[in-house]
Amino acid sequence: MNRRLLPSGEAAVLVECDGLDEVLALHDALAADRLPGVVELVPAARTVLVGVDTDVLPLESAMTWIRRATLAAPVTGEREAADVATIPVVYDGDDLAATAHLLDISTEALVDAHRSAEWRVAFAGFAPGFGYLVCDDWPYEVPRLDAPRTRVPAGAVALAGAFAGVYPRQSPGGWRLIGRTDAVLWDAQSDPPALLVPGRRVRFEAAD
């Protein structure tokens, strides 16, 4: 385990981790013991950015708090339960059959695996409202498309690598599309504006 703390400007600390499991564990530990003055926790694939209000929490104090959490955070094990977002999906994506064929399973088996998995938002990126979803029990590694599409519709439910995701708006993309949803992933008037915030559990269900 090798976690480095690096100042990121005058009001943030970047914590480098060895991998995504460490990121998730550290994010959970920090969120469970959040200090006054911690403005945001931003996980990524191998880092957690901790933003602070230095008028409330000096940067050195924040780094001391992070170090304690770093030592306490397990790499594996049960994570605290979080609220669950349920997303209805019509499983008729353009790549559904081809993706099942690549994985050497039936389309029904792929849909069942996607629906039965309990996903978690590991981190956000790519576009506002786009969450990278992971599942400890998801057994598949899905290759990206050889040539990305120039236009993926909003609400497209997709797979790439070990991740699942939902496109919050129309954009280019190279993930394999297995379905679509009418769920609103991003609403600037909401608090928070993103449905899929880091740490949130996600379940997909077949839409009528």
TrEMBL record:
Q: Which domain of life is it from?
A: Bacteria
Q: Which UniProt keywords apply?
A: ATP-binding, Hydrolase, Nucleotide-binding
Q: Report domain Carboxyltransferase positions.
A: 3-196
* Pfam families the record matches: CT_C_D
Answer whether the UniProt record assigns the keyword Hydrolase to this protein: yes
Q: Which InterPro entries match?
A: CT_C_D, Cyclophilin-like_dom_sf, PxpB
| Residues in the signal sequence | none
GO MF terms held by the record: hydrolase activity
- This one is known as Allophanate hydrolase subunit 1
